[in-house]
Amino acid sequence: MFKFLFDLIGGIIGLVVGLIGGIFGLVVGILGTVVGLTVGVVVLAIVLVLGLLALPILLLIWIF
């Protein structure tokens, strides 16, 4: 009887821990994706702006 109770309590604790872990993992994954996309877009924008700024300078160097 006691063994059954311990198994039940252990199972419930395992289930709760698993659910919390799963939700936490999901949240971290979503946050990671959002941060990754944001950083990617920002880096892309910076590279594009620097590229556009560098083009006239490169043309001037190339002409002279």
What report would you give on this structure?
The protein is mainly α and 64 residues long. 97% of the residues lie in helices and 0% in strands. It has one helix at residues 2-63. The longest helix has 62 residues, at 2-63. The mean pLDDT is 91. The chain crosses the membrane at residues 12-35, 41-63. Keywords: Membrane, Transmembrane, Transmembrane helix.
Q: SSE layout and pairings?
A:
Layout: H1 2-63
Quick overview of this protein structure:
Helices cover 97% and strands 0% of the residues. It has 64 residues and is mostly helical.
SSE ordering: H
Mean pLDDT across all amino acids: 91
Query: Which band does the percent of strand residues land in?
Result: under 5%
What does the radius of gyration come to?
27 Å
Specify the helix fraction band.
Answer: over 70%
Tell me the distance between the termini.
92 Å
Number of DSSP helices? 1
> What's the shape?
rod-shaped
Low-confidence region ranges: none
Structural class of the secondary structure composition? mainly alpha
How many β-strand runs? 0
Major sheet details: none
Q: State the assembly state of the protein chains.
A: single chain
Transmembrane segments: 12-35, 41-63
Keywords: Membrane, Transmembrane, Transmembrane helix
